């Protein structure tokens, strides 16, 4: 599961859950792969992210130290910053772990990179 995916997941569909977002991550196995950097793609994705949730997720898995809690001004023109974000969004993948509902504390497994929220 990539952090981009995590940013969109919620357990709101569960009975008794009002928000269910963001899910806490417990990563047991993380894989890093290479992905071609596409500046325009990363700029467009950043605009769709809940930035604070993204940064917190990166910190939870031990990869968020290079990101600021607030999105930096003029990020669109900072290629090094965009490359750091690209790395976290596209190259870091949680292979095995858990997602935890913030309201019910129900645990959902991540197996072979796929979260199971059923």
Automatic annotation (TrEMBL):
Superkingdom of source: Eukaryota
GO molecular function, one term: protein heterodimerization activity
GO terms for biological process, alphabetical: rRNA (guanine-N7)-methylation; tRNA methylation
UniProt xrefs under Pfam families: Trm112p
Record carries keyword Methyltransferase: yes
InterPro entries xrefs: Trm112, Trm112-like
Keywords recorded for this protein, A-Z: Methyltransferase, Transferase
Matching SUPFAM superfamilies: Trm112p-like (SSF158997)
Family: Belongs to the TRM112 family.
PANTHER family reported for this sequence: MULTIFUNCTIONAL METHYLTRANSFERASE SUBUNIT TRM112-LIKE PROTEIN, UPF0315 PROTEIN-RELATED
Protein's name in the database: Multifunctional methyltransferase subunit TRM112-like protein
């Amino acid at each position: 599961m990539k952090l981009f995916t995590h940013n969109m997941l919620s357990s709101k569909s569960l009975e008794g859950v009002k928000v269910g977002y963001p899910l806490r991550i417990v990563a047991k196995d993380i894989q890093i792969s290479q992905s071609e950097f596409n500046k325009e793609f990363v700029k467009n994705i950043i605009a769709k992210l809940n930035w604070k949730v993204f940064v917190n997720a990166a910190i939870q898995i031990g990869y968020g130290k290079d990101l600021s809690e607030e999105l930096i001004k003029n990020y669109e023109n900072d290629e090094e910053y965009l490359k750091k974000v690209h790395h976290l969004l596209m190259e870091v993948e949680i292979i095995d772990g858990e997602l935890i509902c913030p309201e019910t504390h129900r645990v959902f497994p991540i197996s072979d990179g796929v979260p199971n929220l059923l």
